[in-house]
Design brief:
By secondary structure, this protein is of the alpha+beta class. It folds into 2 domains: about 5-160 and about 320-445, FAD/NAD(P)-binding domain (3-Layer(bba) Sandwich), CATH 3.50.50.60; about 165-315, Beta Barrel (Elongation Factor Tu (Ef-tu), domain 3), CATH 2.40.30. The chain has 13 helices and 17 strands. α1 (about 10-25) packs parallel to α11 and α2 (about 65-75) runs parallel beside α13. The chain is globular. The two termini are about 20 Å apart. The structure holds flavin-adenine dinucleotide (FAD). Its cofactor is FAD. It is an enzyme of class 2 (transferase). Belongs to the MnmG family. TrmFO subfamily. InterPro entries: FAD/NAD-bd_sf (IPR036188), MnmG-rel (IPR002218), MnmG-rel_CS (IPR020595), MnmG_N (IPR040131), TrmFO (IPR004417).
Amino acid sequence: MTQELHIVGGGMAGSEAAWQAANMGVQVVLHEMRPQVETFAHRTGNLGEMVCSNSFRSDDDEQNAVGLLHWEMRAAGGLIISTAHEHRLPAGGALAVDRDPFAESITAKVTAHPNIRISHEEITTLPGDGQWIFATGPLTSEALGAAIQAETGADRLAFFDAIAPIVYAETIDMDVAWLQSRYDKGETEEEQKAYINCPMTKDQYESFIDALLAADKTEFHEGETAKYFDGCLPIEVMAERGRETLRHGPMKPVGLTNPHSPEQKAYAVVQLRRDNALGTLYNIVGFQTKMKYGAQTTVFKTIPGLENASFARLGGIHRNTFINSPTLLDDRMRLRSRPNVRFAGQVTGVEGYVESAAMGLLAGRMAAAEILGKDMPTVPQDTAHGALIHHITGGAEAKTFQPMNVNFGLFRPLEGLKGGRRGRKDRYKAYTDRAKSCWQDWLAAQG
Ligand SMILES: Cc1cc2nc3c(=O)[nH]c(=O)nc-3n(C[C@H](O)[C@H](O)[C@H](O)COP(=O)(O)OP(=O)(O)OC[C@H]3O[C@@H](n4cnc5c(N)ncnc54)[C@H](O)[C@@H]3O)c2cc1C
């Protein structure tokens, strides 16, 4: 008799993990606390409940990284993605679903699976033995959050995200911006040039503050508390506190010299910091925000050097429980300090229904392979799944780790392809072709 796999949380990640492991022949116990214990966002006791939007975003598997993730999940027999397609609603190129029939169908399929047993209970500890996957999501129960914190240390588990926008490096105008760390700090040239700086004149700064104050903002969801910590105030809240606050905070112009115009002292400077080891993504330092997405794009494109910027991810602040995966997890999603415990889904620091389900797919397969004593080849980095898992378990900067959507900035660049906007279509097609081929090889290697 093989060992059982315990999965905690029957959301996007947990349901997918259970499905994948059960299809490999492993006996699964899926522990879901709803409906006995509720969260502020879920409404039902169904598995796979979508708590907010009903969209799985773009379904374009040639030009969009989320669409590619859909494709890979379909190729791997994904429960979430195939059920989403069964309940698809018209939404142009996006995959929107009829949410209640979708969740009812996930619940019915998982319940009917001969290898899965559902146990409605809250799990409040990290067990010392057995094989476990924790997929408890952004609203992980309080008691379990405390247990995770006791294991990982208080600074490795966050209860809110504070997401600053992330820009594709190649879309920053380096004829305006320049590379320099404040006061050229650092031992190596790389460290001395760790930031991209965008200068502002007084007029540009004043217009920027006006735009920030006027921009549309999103409200916190019911049940979320607007607990702003001084370290992560939204920029618009900083601007409300005083027009000069940002200039003395994240936009202070000190310790920097603009090589394009060394005589002219910038009135304010927006800094961007490298966000991944590949150097393809930069986050705007200190620019976490509750501005609506449309407003963010408009306001941030007024920053000199970012007029043509493309954003891999826009900013936000949400109630979101997530661990510092780059320091805590190995490349098989196991807790380094307790390898019988895996994490999956949004709690690992990915963001969104699709990304969470994808991490569930990987965790389910990895745990099942381990239980069955099967070899599982490493997930190829050039796939959408591989790019994401590689980012959260190693590629991301651990110190500033914040949840991440899948995007092409996480992919290793391909040699010999044209950069910039002009080459984008060919580049994305080449990335998705490469990914599909690697993903098929990886699936085939598992038999
Ligand atoms: C208010 C809000 C709005 C959101 N809006 C969107 C959106 O529009 N689009 C989007 O893509 N993403 C959105 N998200 C993020 C979304 O929740 C995740 O992307 C996705 O649901 C994560 O999947 P998951 O499986 O990791 O977590 P979930 O789907 O949340 O599943 C986790 C499950 O674990 C259960 N659980 C928690 N603790 C325990 C415990 N101790 N014992 C047993 N069970 C437990 C929960 O009841 C839940 O069923 C939103 C999140 C929140 C909080």
